[in-house]
Write a structure and sequence with these properties.
Elements: E1 5-13, H1 18-32, E2 38-46, E3 49-59, H2 62-69, H3 72-81, E4 85-94
Antiparallel strand pairs: 1-3, 1-4, 2-3
Helix pairs in contact: 1-3
């Protein structure tokens, strides 16, 4: 186990608000990657549901994740994005293994 914490955030966005949401989440993701302890912040869109966006985030530890939640850019994102979001769920987890490609 490498001790890193993972977070999956699943957003269902009001269909007519997806472009606005994507601009906001892209700005938030870029700012998040500048935080100490944030190792990965991926934005994914569900193929069959273009108004569903999933974040995959990896942090060094619980303190880094907690610090992320207090960042001003996160508060700014949620203040602007809240009216665009129809549903949201969060799954917190511990990463057990990061698979790597074998050396050639």
């Amino acid at each position: 186990m490498d001790g890193k914490l993972g977070l999956i955030v699943d957003f269902e966005i009001h269909p007519d608000k997806i472009d606005e949401f994507m601009a906001l989440i892209t700005t938030n993701a870029k700012a998040s990657m500048g935080e100490p302890g944030c190792k990965q912040f991926d934005i994914l869109r569900v193929n069959e549901q273009p108004n569903r966006v999933v974040l995959y985030e990896i942090y060094d530890d619980g303190e880094a994740l907690k610090a992320h939640g207090t960042m001003p850019h996160v508060a700014t994102f949620f203040a602007a994005a809240k009216p665009l979001i129809a549903k949201q769920s969060v799954i917190r987890m511990e990463r057990l293994l990061q698979a790597e490609k074998p050396a050639k």
